[in-house]
UniProtKB/TrEMBL annotation:
Pfam families in the cross-refs: APH
Protein name: Kinase-like domain-containing protein
UniProt keyword Kinase, yes or no: yes
Organism the protein comes from: Pterulicium gracile
GO molecular function: kinase activity
Length: 301
C-alpha cells in the first residue's frame, strides 16, 4: 500500500479513539470506495443492519436518503448533548449525488437485545425495560425545544414513520390537532366506500386528545435497536450500552412512543414494556389499533 494511503488509513482508523479533526473527514470521504470494498471482505454483515454496514474497526456507514439520515444525525447530536442516553458518536455526515452518508461509532462491546432476550432472566428483562423507561423520560424532558412547537423531525421539518409509511415523509404539523386531523384523513377513502366506517372515523376523531404535549420521541424502540452487555444471570450483570437507529425520531405527541413500541410486538417484551414504561395510554392504543383494522377489512354494518 502506498505511503500516502497508509497515512490516510491511519488517520481514518484513529477516529475510533476519538481523534476526529479537520484533516480526517475529507480523507475519509476520498477513501470511502476503497474502505467499502475492504470492509465487504473483512467484516460480516451487521445483524438487523439493513441500511448499515461495518466500515472499519471502529465505525459503521449508513447510506440512505439525505432526508432520513439528516434526521438521524440531528437526533444523535441532540441526544448526546442533552441526555445521558448511550448512543453512537457521529464521526461524519455529508450529502452528495448518491444521497446521504452517515458514519457513526461502532460499539462492539454488546449484543442486540433481540439475540439474547430468551437467555435473560425475567428480572434482567425487567431491568432493561426500567432502563428504557428512564431513557424515554429523558427524551420527553429534552431541551432545547423548537422555536415553535410542532409535530416534526428533529430539524423541525418533515419526518418518517414506518407505522404510517415506509416510503413517504410527513408533516410538519403545527399542532397535535393538525396531526390528528391528518391522521384521520389517511382513512377517508375507506369511509367513502362504506358509510358506517365514515361514521366511526368521525367518532374516533372526537375521541382523540388534542392536548397531549409534544415531546422528543425515538420512534422505534425495539429489541433490534437496544444493545446490551451480559456477563451473567444477576441483575447487575446486564447493562444497556446503546440505543440505536434514530431515523424515525422527532417531536411527537407524548403517547406516540407507546404506539410505536407496541406496534407488531408480542409476548413478554410487550407486557413488560406496557407495565414498566407506557401504561396509561389505553385509549390512544385502542384508537390506533382500530384505525389499522379500518385500513384492512371494512367494518361490519
Amino acid at each position: 500500500m502506498p505511503g500516502l494511503l497508509l497515512w490516510a488509513r491511519h488517520l481514518f482508523l484513529s477516529a475510533k479513539n476519538g481523534i476526529v479533526n479537520f484533516f480526517t473527514r475529507p480523507i475519509r470521504r476520498l477513501l470511502l470506495p476503497y474502505l467499502i470494498r475492504r470492509a465487504t471482505s473483512k467484516y460480516p454483515p451487521l445483524k438487523g443492519g439493513y441500511s448499515a454496514q461495518r466500515l472499519t474497526y471502529g465505525s459503521v456507514l449508513k447510506t440512505r436518503s439525505t432526508q432520513w439520515l439528516s434526521i438521524e444525525a440531528k437526533a444523535l447530536e441532540m441526544v448526546r448533548k442533552y441526555t445521558t442516553i448511550p448512543v453512537p458518536r457521529t464521526l461524519d455526515y455529508w450529502q452528495d449525488s448518491d444521497g446521504g452518508h452517515l458514519i457513526i461509532e461502532y460499539i462492539g462491546d454488546g449484543e442486540l437485545l433481540q439475540q439474547v432476550w430468551k437467555q435473560l432472566t425475567h428480572s434482567q428483562r425487567r431491568k432493561v425495560c426500567r432502563t428504557l423507561r428512564d431513557y424515554v423520560q429523558q427524551l420527553r424532558e429534552l431541551v432545547p425545544r423548537p422555536s415553535k412547537e410542532s409535530v416534526s423531525s428533529p430539524n423541525d421539518g418533515a419526518f418518517i414513520d414506518f407505522r404510517i409509511s415506509t416510503e413517504k415523509m410527513h408533516g410538519p404539523f403545527p399542532t397535535v390537532a393538525d396531526f390528528h386531523d391528518w391522521r384521520l384523513d389517511q382513512f377517508v377513502a375507506f369511509g367513502q366506500l362504506h358509510a358506517p366506517t365514515a361514521l366511526r372515523l368521525g367518532q374516533l376523531r372526537q375521541m382523540m386528545n388534542d392536548t397531549h404535549p409534544i415531546v422528543f420521541t425515538h420512534g422505534d424502540i425495539s429489541p433490534w435497536n437496544v444493545l446490551v452487555k451480559v456477563d451473567g444471570l444477576e441483575d447487575e450483570d446486564i447493562t444497556v450500552v446503546a440505543l440505536l437507529d434514530w431515523e424515525q425520531a422527532g417531536w411527537r405527541p407524548r403517547y406516540w412512543e407507546a404506539v410505536k413500541f407496541m406496534h407488531g410486538k408480542h409476548g413478554e417484551w410487550e407486557e413488560l414494556g406496557w407495565e414498566e414504561i407506557f401504561g396509561g395510554y389505553e385509549q390512544e392504543m385502542k384508537i390506533e389499533d382500530e384505525l389499522l383494522l379500518i385500513s384492512g377489512p371494512l367494518l361490519n354494518t
